[in-house]
Specification:
It is a single chain. The chain has a domain of about 180 residues: 3-Layer(aba) Sandwich (Aminopeptidase), CATH 3.40.630.40. The mean pLDDT is about 85. The chain is built from seven helices and six strands, in the order αβαβαββαβαβαα. The radius of gyration is 54 Å and the shape is rod-shaped. By secondary structure, the chain is α/β, with parallel strands linked by helices. The protein has a six-stranded mixed beta sheet, sandwiched between helices. Helix content is about 40%, strand content about 10%.
Length: about 290
Amino acid sequence: MKKIVKRRRTFRINNPLAFGILCAMILILLAGVTYALVAGVISPAIVNYQIANATPTPSPTVAPVTATPSPTIDPALPTPSPTLEPGATPTPTAEPAGALEGHIIGIDPARGYSSQIRGVSTKVYANRLNYAVATLVKEKLEAEGATVVFTLSSVKDDKTSAERVKVLNDGNVEIAVRIECNSVGSSDTRGAMAWVPEKHDKKAECDKLASAVLNAYVSATKLPLRTINDTSIIDKSDETFLNNTNAPVFTLFLGHISNATEDKAINDADFQQTMAQGIVTGILRYLGVNE
């Protein structure tokens, strides 16, 4: 009987492709084990080492707060006014009321646009001169707080005396002043003067008003007074404007444009400012208002 002999098996890889795959799998396995070791063991160890040996950041030192003593206020010194914060809106201060606040004053520039009377030297028409000075008076009165009722709407206005009176009476004026320049046949006649109504319900006030304004006017302008029968304030009975105006009223004659010297003077723009201020000063005095 023939003896059966067992053959030893040997692991052989005769296929190169299979051998390559096997080697790749072994390398992947080794790489995975290595990564696991590094991530799970080595990296935490490194982090722990860094934390353990890190230099601690010092905490900031806060300086002790020292209270600033309040300044001692000398009672002899004035208390300082508080200053506004940047951007704060100051409380507006009310403007003081004018000296003539609440007063209603009538101003009438005499003559109309159709008047042909004019200065002997300047050739300026009388109504233009009257209107210019009356306008300055109006502006100065308004600057003092007065309400001014002005009888003419423009220098070309040609209202009658009756129409002017109606404007003043409807406006409930407290006083009325007509502003006029004079022209006579004599070239030597000059000076300021006034007309007042001969009969009026407020005759004494008319006289008082005329005196106050005329005196202030000549004081300001240094113009002479023209006198008739030893007076510069003349009673008139035939003047519609004077007779029918309800309030105390008078006419102020600025000077004579029939006189060459006076015509030039009262047509000077700078001098007209002085003339107007003199009239306003007289009104203030009549009303008992401090200048």
